[in-house]
Write a structure and sequence with these properties.
Length: about 220
């Protein structure tokens, strides 16, 4: 029997349960304010983080997307543009290039544009906002594959990014196995509660029986 990878395991679990697991272990991970472009047919995306950081333009100039040449297939690109919503750091050319190269998706602490192209390509995209103004001559790429911080969450290259219709979270690679194990237990517990209710047990009794109210408690 083939052993599932950590990406397959976490990709099979809703971000809600992974978030609960992170809470139980006392680790931050959810990225507030970053949501899916496609709220309808979007499926979950999971992969190792490929990080990129932008800052406001200086007299040095710079680029806004050439790092795509270095992204491995299956990665999820995580871009930190400091949450700016007045200009974009991702557009149609980048969507089509990333899709052609097998990138698993993009997460932006900032803005994307050319959303029609992204939706037509069914490219997985999560961002703070959508806005058409270019980032050229407004922001510049200053670091690739370094540590970035979004919403108090430190993100290292290779950390596990999981994104679905509820949003985005990041699991540190060092604790990914532990998080997956706890999240799987949370999913099983919730399934047990639903099954008990369907068999006639009250919700209160089912939650008490399966210790629902301690699922997210920080464990020693």
């Amino acid at each position: 029997m083939t052993t599932r990878t950590i990406f397959e395991r976490l990709g099979a679990i809703p971000t809600a349960s992974i978030s609960d697991a992170l809470d139980a272990l006392g680790h931050p991970g959810s990225l507030l304010g970053i949501g899916p472009l496609d709220t309808g047919s979007l499926t979950a995306a999971v992969g190792p983080a490929f990080t990129a950081r932008y800052e406001p333009i200086t007299d040095e100039g710079g680029t806004v997307g050439d790092f795509l040449d270095d992204v491995e297939p299956g990665s999820i690109i995580v871009i930190d543009n400091q949450g700016r919503t007045d200009c974009t750091v991702w557009g149609g050319i980048m969507t089509q290039t990333a899709g052609a190269r097998g990138v698993a998706g993009t997460v932006i602490n900032g803005t994307c544009r050319d959303t029609t192209v992204t939706l037509e390509q069914r490219y997985p995209m999560w961002s703070t906002a959508r806005f058409m103004r270019t980032g050229k001559d407004r922001v510049r790429l200053v670091e690739v594959q370094g540590t970035i911080e979004i919403d108090g969450v430190a993100i290292e290259p290779g950390d596990v990014v999981v994104a679905d219709s509820d949003g985005v979270l990041v699991v540190p690679a060092a604790i990914a196995e532990e998080v997956a194990e706890r999240a799987e237990k949370i999913e099983q517990t919730e399934s047990n509660i639903v099954a008990a209710v369907r068999e006639g047990t009250s919700l209160h009794a089912a939650r008490t029986k399966f210790a629902y109210h301690t699922l997210q408690s920080v464990q020693a």
